[in-house]
Amino acid sequence: MSIALGRVRLRPLDALRPEDWVRVHQHFQDPEIAHLNGTPPNRLPRWLLRRVLKSDARRPDRMPFGVYDEHDDYIGTVELYDVASDEATLGIIIGERSHWGRGYGPEAMRALLRHAFGALGLNHVRLHTYGDNERALAAFQKVGFAERERKRNREGRVDVHMDLWRDAFLEAERRLEAAAESET
Fold first, then answer.
1. What is the pTM of this model?
2. Contacts of 156 (CB under 8 A, 6+ apart)
């Protein structure tokens, strides 16, 4: 199953090509990306990281996808995890710096959220980021996520919890579509 919106296409991890796994591995090892995600850089060899991620993808509470741009180049990952009942948590990494700040993250999230609130029937999606990750905060707000809580953690970083409800997302999508139609 592939999901497309605008310039992006989401593919399940099983559909990633060998060269895509090289990029996945590089993204997970990148110190800046790791810091933005609140994790240490990954030190697993590529074959083991691939095995771990593919194993996680088979869990019923996870839906990870590779994110591809309009040239069919792998640029990152987006996923729903902790999927239970009618809610889930969203995570995203746009690992290709050449694609940062160019709207690919919001497009990938919108594609996944359309699927989540449509085909999956979810009602609520939440996420967690850090107050110093300003680019991510702006992307999440652009898609419609609302900040619910800020709290300083043990490491001194500010945890930011955000969420998005189905009705709010669908209303925002209607406004976007109306605005696009009025431009034509």
1. 0.93
2. none
Distance of alpha carbon 149 from alpha carbon 179, whole angstroms: 31
Q: Which domains does the chain have, with CATH numbers?
A: 3-183 (3.40.630.30)
CA separation for the pair 110, 19 (Å, rounded): 26
DSSP strands (E only) in 106-180: 124-130, 146-152, 158-165
For the chain, 184 residues long, give each residue's pLDDT as a single digit of tens.
799 999 999 999 999 999 999 999 999 999 999 999 999 999 999 999 999 999 999 999 999 999 999 999 999 999 999 999 999 999 999 999 999 999 999 999 999 999 999 999 999 999 999 999 999 999 999 999 999 999 999 989 999 999 999 999 999 898 888 887 888 6
Q: How far apart are CA 9 and CA 170, in angstroms?
A: 20
CA angle 137, 171, 101 (to 5 degrees): 30
